[in-house]
Design brief:
- It contains eight helices and two strands, in the order βααααααααβ.
- It is mainly α and 237 residues long.
- It has one domain.
- The N terminus and C terminus are likely disordered.
């Protein structure tokens, strides 16, 4: 049978098996459609006020665990969705330029630019007022969807994907994905704990991020398929 050679450590010029491209394309399309359906449903429920009971119960439950130590941790996690993320972003840009990972740099830049446009557009489109904050200063922007959730999903998710494309160790890949997931989830939880977002805002933020990232993956795979993939095969048993 044919065996496809795949370069794992140089994704800038790696050879991609056509079967893998097809699987990724199908999965990204499915995720995009599912995320759009769920986001639309939550947005409709929110607009009609049907999420208020859910939001109030979750806010009350999360707030019941409040303590000075937890509050400090949540402020730190929230920072990783704003200023801390910016620091990591600048460091990543410098690293990618030094390593000449221009494709990865393009992915990162497009991801964050698109996330910014999507966040502003959706917030002004739904113009949902913020809840009463439990801790800290209430942001002046609209509440739905959570920008922290949207940005953290896009940034840490794409960073995890870019890093994993450049390593061979399966264990390291698991660690990277797990860390990215925990950070993104922690940031969303922190916004609920601090009281600056409704839980439905955070869920919608993650869904908006999933829509944007999966759409990027779909477009990229379609583009590469049309341009012609460089696949090298050898005969084997």
């Amino acid at each position: 049978m044919a065996i496809t050679r795949l370069g794992l450590n140089d994704p800038e010029h790696s050879e991609k098996p056509a079967s893998l491209i097809g699987v990724v394309l199908s999965m990204s399309l499915a995720i995009t459609v599912l995320a759009i359906i769920l986001f639309s449903w939550i947005a409709d429920e929110m607009s009609e006020g049907d999420t208020m009971l859910f939001d109030a119960n979750v806010r009350s439950f999360v707030h019941s665990f409040s303590s000075p130590a937890v509050t400090k941790t949540m402020f730190a996690l929230s920072f990783m969705g704003a200023g801390g993320m910016l620091v990591v972003l600048v460091a990543a840009v410098i690293l990618f330029v030094v390593k000449k990972w221009y494709r990865g740099l393009g992915w990162l830049g497009l991801t964050m630019a698109g996330a910014a446009v999507l966040s502003v557009t959706l917030k002004y489109g739904f113009h949902r007022a913020r809840p009463v904050a439990f801790f800290g200063v209430l942001p002046s922007s609209y509440s739905f969807p959570s920008g922290h959730a949207l940005f953290s999903f896009c940034f840490y998710g794409v960073m995890a994907g870019l890093i994993n494309a450049r390593v061979r160790s399966h264990w390291l890949r698991v660690v990277v994905w797990s860390l990215a997931g925990l950070i993104a989830a922690g940031i969303g939880l922190s916004r609920i704990y601090l009281g600056v977002h409704y839980p439905s805002d955070v869920i919608a933020g993650y869904l908006a991020g999933a829509i944007w990232v999966s759409t990027m993956i779909t477009v990229d795979r379609v583009r590469r398929t049309r341009q012609g993939l460089r696949v090298t095969t050898v005969d084997g048993q």
